[in-house]
Design a protein that fits this description.
By secondary structure, the protein is mostly helical. The chain has a single domain, classed as EF-hand (Recoverin, domain 1, Orthogonal Bundle), CATH 1.10.238.10. About 60% of the residues lie in helices and about 5% in strands. It has 8 helices and 4 strands; from the N terminus they run E-E-H-H-E-H-H-E-H-H-H-H.
Amino acid sequence: MGTIHSNKGINKTELKKLSAKTHFTEAQIKKWYKGFIKDCPSGLLNRSTFLSMYTQFFPDGKARLFYEHLFRTFDQDASGSIDFNEFLTAISITQSGSPEEKLELAFQLYDIDRNGTIEEYEMTQIIKVSYTLIPFELRWFIEISIKLS
């Protein structure tokens, strides 16, 4: 997708495109861009950096598989890295997207092989990795509730 950037910041053309495509103002996009370039000077967020950023929330490693799927979802062009355009688009949808945009992003998360359909194995895999994010006490309660019903 390739956001064109320089030491001065994001270029005007890309800024206007992102403003039209996302739910952010040009000023907000500039702030996001500044932070993105600070963390990713090459303009690309690679898998290992993405995982290290997100696994801070779950340092025991339980969330790693979930964040692998999240990385794949954000990496829209399957290039192996997330550029600023992909990053900001995903953030925009998760923060301020319409129900339809959020549903489409969720669909992409579940559609592991990107064939446009969600197979049973894909659904099962995402549910399993999502389940690891739930605190143990709550998992226990859910399991007991399921057994009782």
